Amino acid sequence: MTPDTKLIRKIIAPNGGVFTGGGTNTYIIGSDDLTLVDPGPIIEEHSKNILDNFGKKINRILVTHTHMDHSPLATPLAKELNVPLMGMIIKDNLEYQDLSFQPDVHLKDGELIKTDEYVIEAIHTPGHASNHICYLLKNNNHLITGDHIMQGSTVVIAPPDGNMKDYLASLKKLKNYNIEVLAPGHGDYIHKPFEAVDWIINHRLDREKKVLEKVRARQVIELDDLVKDVYDDVDPRLHRIAKASLEAHLIKLQDDGKVLAVAKTWKYIN
Ligand SMILES: [Zn+2]
Question: pTM of whole model > 0.70?
């Protein structure tokens, strides 16, 4: 097996927006024995694009997680192509999840998917979603990151399925692997993977520090007020989305014994 830059190709689903940047990246691994990763939402044009260009050679479909912009096309495509679906099923906190996704192969952390052409390792990376998997293509050390890492923006960590403590642990976990390029679920390839990982970790910890400072300044505060204090550097139109990640930070700070949820407020603990 020699490294091959053509080993991984990308097509972009036409679902650009606030959460999805230019659209969801669908990856195709291999040249004859293809693995499709994250088919994306059910959009006729995207489905046709996948089938016309790669259809008969696709032998398996993987998904990084079951949010609506990543997995819904997986089930109809797997049926049409008669190939197995692989990934991790979502068990709890089913809101905003694609419940049609029922994998034929339930992947576990560290599991290898081997073909004659290449080997893929599944790396469980909970945080953005509890069932999130990154896929490491061992032949050229490209990591398909799904929504664990996006290019061009930070990801939303929305409780209860999203978990900030898990997210930070899953970012640090990537440092145990030989990774040369990140292939994100949205945006362009990232060629300095560990700089990107460190930037995200530091960004989250800086934000956490600011959350704690703002709660301490008010002692007791509601989420709707706190979001304005903590995200004063962010367009107010995005505050509704930011509230999810803010709550994730607060839950982590509560786990760390620094704040406490009391009725609808958050209280600073001395
Ligand atoms: Zn997602």
Answer: yes
